[in-house]
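In practice, a research group might receive sequence data for several interacting partners and want a quick structural hypothesis before committing to experiments. The following worked case mirrors that situation: the sequences arrive first, and a predicted assembly follows.
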Amino acid sequence: MVKRIVSGAHYGLRDWLIQRVTAVVMAVYSLFLIGFFFTQPLSFASWHGLFESLPVRLASLLFLFSVLIHAWVGMRDIFMDYIHPTVIRLTLHVVVILALIAYAAWAVQILWSVQ
Amino acid sequence: MRFSIYRYNPETDAKPTMQDYELDIEAEGKMLLDAILLLKEQDESLSVRRSCREGVCGSDGMNINGKNGLACVTPLKDLKQPIELRPLPGLPVIRDLIVDMSQFLKHYRSVKPYLINVDPEPEIERLQSPEDREQLDGLYECILCACCSTSCPSFWWNPDKFVGPAGLLQAYRFIADSRDQATNERLDDLEDPYRLFRCHSIMNCVEVCPKGLNPTRAIGKIKELLVKRTV
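A structural hypothesis for the assembly, expressed as tokens:
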């Protein structure tokens, strides 16, 4: 391959925006959880009760997806900064994407296993 | 006063060394550049770039006690001794405190730092309202000393692709100019994971700018405009 400096992929805005939106989702959910810790008794029953409700499950899922998407953009940023050989970087991208998809499936399975 | 100065001649030295200097100087009212020029009288081989000696030309950018700045506007008495002087980080060293600015200037040129206006040339200057002119404050003052870009980690990691704070500040200077007609093309050019989005708002650029400018804010404004034209 010729050694040319190539830039101009014309993307990035969406990722940058998603990074911010997911950060807000995570912040709101975290505040909600902290509020729960301070206002409710910390017992198995109260914890179990919390995750029995559908809205909490959906919010948790939203939070988890936000974490995963946020992590993807962040990891990609780290690779762009520090890993320069294209082959290694692409491999790392694939590994991270596959890992995040696996985590997503695992998270859904855990959340919906609460009886 | 005691100094420790980076010495390197890539043609003859295997690696850079730090050389100690002593100088008998009354620090009150003097700038760092005054001391460097006296040191140069002691040791003519010490290489440094300078011109206007009053913070206008941007030639004597260097790393002073770990922070980038212009020697000519850095008061000597505020500096902790031994005063450690190094070249601007992240650029190839030509000799001692002199760095090769080619990469930095290439990025500057890449943002087309001039007015693009396809209207017929008027007989008088292209006028601006005072409000439109105000938009350029905090942007046009940049002297291209490279203190900001060479303090930016994103510029260190991707110096060949990331435009850097100085270039992006100038890009925004022309986007913000009411007389310029190439806003969309400029935004197209910048919408890129490397050219613009390597900026992670670290804000080293803001901390070191000797003219007190805020490249991070200018970059934020570019991002705002990109959002505005997308949603």
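Before designing any experiment, note the following. Chain B has a mean pLDDT of 96. The two ends of chain B are 58 Å apart (CA to CA).
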